[in-house]
Amino acid sequence: MNLLSLFFPQKIAVYKSKYNSEIKVYEFLGRKYIEVGRLMQSGNMVKQLFSQMLKKFHLQHQPYIKRILVLGLGGGSVVELLNKTYPEAEITAIEIDPMMVQAGRKYLQLGKSRRLKIIFADVFKLPRSKIKYDLVIVDLFRGEETPAQLGEPSFLRYLKSLTTEQGCIVFNRLYFQKHIFEANQFLNKLEGIFQHVDTTKVYFNLFIKAC
Fold first, then answer.
1. What's the predicted TM-score (pTM) here?
2. Is the pLDDT score of 147 beyond 80?
C-alpha cells in the first residue's frame, strides 16, 4: 500500500482506452477505485450506492432472483455486490471496454467473481436475445455521459421483453446539475412503457426500478 494514499488519493495506473480515453486507477485509505472523466466507475463507493439501492427497493436476498443481466460491467464492483447478495445467481455482464475489465481484474475483485459470464460488445448492436432475467442492471456510462440510444423507446421495450414475470430493470442515472433534467426526461419515457416505475435517490444518483 502506498503510504501517501492514507492522506490523499494516489494514481497508481492509467489505461489508454478506445472507448473511455483514459481509465485511471487510484488508491485512497487502502482501497482502490477506477475513475473516468472525474467520475468514479468502480470501487467501494459504487458498491455502497448499489447496496443502498437494493435495500431501498427491497431487492436484497430475494430467492426468485436466479439470473441477472448487467449492462455496463465496468471494473466489476456491482458484480462483486451481486455475488454476495445472490450467491446462487448466474450473472451475464456486457461491457464494451476490455481495458476497463482488465483494470478491474488487476486492481479490484473482478477476477474473483463467481458464476459470471462476460460478453465484450456494444449492447446496442448485439443480436436480440430471448433469454429472460429476474434482474437487469443498466449502468451505462462513458465518464458522466449516458448513451443516447438508451432512451430509444424500441430499446427500452426490448429490455422490458428480457424480464421474467417477477423480474425488473434498475437504471442508474446521475442526478446533479444538467443530469437532473436528462434523468427526469428519461423517467418520463419509462413511465410511458412500463406499468410500474419507482425511484430512489442515493447521494447524487437516481435509481429507477421499472417492471
1. 0.94
2. yes
